[in-house]
Known about the structure:
Blueprint: H1 2-8, H2 16-23, E1 27-31, H3 36-45, E2 51-56, H4 59-68, E3 75-80, H5 86-99, E4 105-108, H6 125-145, H7 147-153, E5 156-162, H8 174-194, E6 200-206, H9 228-241, E7 245-246, H10 251-268
Parallel strand pairs: 1-2, 1-4, 2-3, 4-5, 5-6, 6-7
Helix pairs in contact: 2-9, 3-9, 5-6, 6-8
Amino acid sequence: MRLIERLLYPRLELNEQKLDDEVTGKTIVITGASSGIGKQLVKVLAKSDCHLILAARRLERLASLQQSLHKERAHIDVYGIDLREEVSRERFVDFARDVSPQIDVLVHCAGHSIRRPVRESASRMHDFTRTMAINYFAPVHLTLSFLPELEESGGHVISMSTINACLPPMPHFSAYQASKSAFDAWLRSAAEELERVGVVVTTMYLPLVRTPMIEPTKAYGKAPAMSVDQVAVRVGRAIYKRQTSVRPWWLSPLQYITLHRRNLRDYSAGRRGNDADR
Length: 278
């Protein structure tokens, strides 16, 4: 499996000097910072003389992370937040403004994944409302709230998206794929406006990543996955390169194959037509 992972996810190197030059003196807000991608990114950025404002549901884990990095150069503030709640998000925005007069980079790492057949979701509407709250409404709310600061600083918004947002729908992931696709569409639309005022938008189209979020799904245990270390490297590179999109090398060919395969299947089954058909 390691050979397959090396092929699918080639190891990239981070230019630590370029990253340090880019983030020194800046304030970076990171959601979902207590574990997975967010936690690893914090470890990378903490080596620089910057201000990190970290948010996550589990405050005790944030505090532990903050303590473990106390010898690093970054100044770190932490905040416990329930991203599902609008009031909690508003309080976090107030907190961030209290501890820093500027916001230069906003990184959306928080996310919620769920794998469940639609028929098993009939009495579980909360699966959809919670997933939309965390994966869509929360990043929209925070991006809009910090927009004045980001525009003032010529800032950077970075989203941890998924390759699923670029591919045909997958069974059992209706709640997750709908919520991630919703924010992807919103951010791509907003990016057209934000770039005109100097705010860079980066979308990280990530494959399966070895994080605690995938642990409940046993099928993922033996599946090829990218490490959080390599995701953090790619985010760091996106920061100093100010890239607009980061995706696996094989995503574009896969999009082409899956689209045409689906179209062929629908045509052969007589399920595809147009509004001129009678």
